Amino acid sequence: MVEIFIFIFGLFFGSFANVVIRRLPYGNSIVKPASHCPKCLLPIKWKDNLPVVSFLILGGRCRNCKTKISIEYPTVELLTALIFLVGYFNFGISVNLLIFLILSIFLIIISFIDLHLRIIPDMLAISLLIFGLASSFFNPLISFSFLNSLKGSLFGGVFLYSVAFLGAKIYKKEVMGGGDVKLLAAGGTFLGLKNIFLALLIACFIGGITGLFLILIGNKKKSDFIPFGPFIAISILIVFFLRPQNPFLITFQP
Ligand SMILES: [Zn+2]
Question: Deepest of 24, 113, 166, 222, by most Cβ within 10 A of its Cβ?
Answer without folding.
Answer: 113
